[in-house]
Design brief:
Strand content: 25-35%
Number of helices: 5
Helix content: 25-40%
CATH topology: Glutaredoxin
Mean pLDDT: 95
Number of strands: 9
Distance between the termini: 30 Å
Shape: globular
Order of helices and strands: EEEHHEHEHEEEEH
Structural class: alpha/beta
Largest sheet: 5 strands, mixed
Length: about 160
């Protein structure tokens, strides 16, 4: 399991996305935010996607692509976007390869039961493909504000 940190090259992402097309980070010529989340249409994941969507004007104005990734299908992503009027790109990592490449597929524990799942994590990647900041074990409240403030910091360097 990789332990990615600031200053490292971000792994390539090339997966299906909402709407039936694909997202390939090697084709992006701008900075991007990748946030990994456990499951469409659950309370924390919905709040996080809505928070990013509500701030898309900031990301668009600063040419920063926002990509949410889970192991849900493209069809589930499309329903999730329609239901909550989301403005983010949602990538479908059915094989789990991208989650593993980013080190967010981890053993979790709930009520004493151990299972594998996605660690809610966010990566801010500069247009040079280098990771600027990593957030692991993200708490949804105020997270998007923190990401925006860090984007502003990155844009001013």
């Amino acid at each position: 399991m990789p332990n990615l940190s600031a200053g490292m090259k971000a792994p390539l992402i090339d997966i299906p996305r909402d709407g039936g097309s694909s997202i390939n980070t090697s084709k992006l010529d701008n900075s991007y935010v990748i946030y990994f989340y456990p499951k469409d249409d659950t309370p924390g994941c919905t709040k996080e996607a809505i928070n990013f969507s509500e701030n898309m004007s900031f990301f668009d104005k600063n040419n920063i692509t926002v990509i949410g990734i889970s192991k849900d299908t493209v069809e589930k992503h499309d329903k999730f976007i329609d239901k909550h009027n989301l403005g983010v790109i949602l990538g479908s990592d059915l094989t789990g390869k991208v989650c593993e490449d980013f080190g967010v597929w981890i053993e979790k524990s709930m009520y004493g039961r151990k299972y594998m799942g996605i660690d809610r994590s966010t990566f801010l990647v500069g247009k040079n493909g280098i990771i600027y900041k990593v957030w692991n074990k993200v708490k949804v409240k105020d997270h998007v504000d923190d990401v925006i403030n860090t984007c502003k910091e990155m844009l001013n360097t």
